[in-house]
Design a protein that fits this description.
There is one protein chain. The chain is mostly beta strands and about 120 residues long. The chain is about 0% helix and about 45% strand. It contains no helices and eleven strands. The termini are far apart.
């Protein structure tokens, strides 16, 4: 089973990027999908998650109102639209598959599996 993230790059502050995560898992719709990032300050930081059917989404306070997570179960894809990017958004973004959902807030347990990340650099 693989998760492959793409769409990262260099963008100026205030710019936008759309990240994509493609899954090879036929049971994709059985998982809560999330985006997390690794920054110079944190090894793993919660960004956003989306429930199985896509009807519920949750965001870190730092990205709320700027980022939007979505999924397409038929295509086994999860997306992260990032607008109004800030330098502190710089990091390696990776997608994770979680078999359960809970009131974890920003303290999500380790995933069932995780893919390779994509680097996002926000700089002028």
């Amino acid at each position: 089973v693989q998760l492959q993230a793409s769409g990262g790059g260099l963008v100026q502050p205030g710019g936008s990027l759309r990240l994509t995560c493609a899954s090879s898992d036929s049971r994709f719709s059985d998982y809560v999908m999330g985006w997390f990032r690794r920054t110079p300050e944190k090894e793993r930081e919660f960004v956003a998650v989306i429930k199985w059917s896509g009807d519920s989404t949750y965001y870190a306070d730092s990205v709320k109102g700027r980022f939007t997570i979505s999924r397409d179960n038929a295509r086994r894809m999860v997306y992260l639209q990032m607008n109004n990017l800030k330098p502190e958004d710089t990091g390696v973004y990776f997608c994770e598959a979680h078999g359960t959902f809970g009131p974890f807030g920003s303290r999500w347990p380790p995933p069932d599996y995780r893919g390779e990340g994509t680097l996002v650099t926000v700089s002028s």
